[in-house]
Amino acid sequence: MILRIVSNNLKGGARRYCYILNRALQDSGRKTATFIPRAPSADPFSDAELVPFEYHNTRSFLKLLLYAYRNRTKITLIHSHLRMANIYGFIISLIIGKPLVITCHGPDPKKKTIRESFLIFLNKCAVKRAKRIIHISEFVKQNFLEYHSILESDKHVVIYNGSDDLGVKCREPSTVLKIVVVGELTERKGIPRLIQELEKLEKEGVKKSIEFHIYGEGIYKNDLIKLSRKVKNYKVNVHGYEDDLGKIYHNADLHLILAINEGFGRVVTEAMSAGVPTIAYRSGAFPELIRHKVTGYLLGDEPLSDAISFFSDSNILSAISHHCRLEFEDRFSSIAFSINTIRAISSL
Question: With a threshold of 0.85, does the pTM exceed it?
Fold first, then answer.
């Protein structure tokens, strides 16, 4: 049995990562038990009563430790996700004598406080103990090694996240360019920058009919709703959180994310699976995922309007949509991710 530990759950990419991997392990006949906090709202990918695997929705280290000790003869591997989980996994690995695998999902914080220095020390201990450290992008790996002052070794590997295949749905030709924004409506996900860019678009005007459809929850939701009531040159629709990814991407022409230093960006590969190109900054892991003007558009100093104008040509949009599908199938499918990850941990 693989004991999986996740220390945070805001309905982000880590819990989808675990769900997809647990599903693949179950299909191959391997049992898993996952400890993950309950999400802020009902979630089919992490709620213990909704997932088809053994899940425990708790943050309690004591409950985790008792479970691990009682099941120590069944547990063959501990797999931790996110920083506090790495520390928990390290301690439990020492107590029950089982190998540890760590997955790093994102860049570390910039400020080094006294508490942060102590966490760095514990994470270094966990890394030393771990048999394998999986990074979800080259950007995350380099950030992790530099932040913790760790030398690279063979046990550090990069395995890109995988997304389930949404498939491409044929849409009726339209004169309206539909752009979706998906995820947390927070500063970390670039929503203040999104608001600034939308305000610029309003002043500059747009040459093509555009609709922005924003899916997610967060502290900037009300600001986006207020903006939607003010703009005249295009439409902004704020929908809230949506579980049905097909409903989002099958009705979209483009996907937009303005986060900086993103560790991966699962929404990029989810959009790619539906043949929807992404506009993103040339920052973080995005240059690893997106080939500029081939599978999407990487913004530099130019305004958002330049990227939108590039996709206004329907022939260009159609060609890039086709390349998105090929790239997804080759590099970012849940099948490729599961095979690569299971191979990495099975060899231990």
Answer: yes
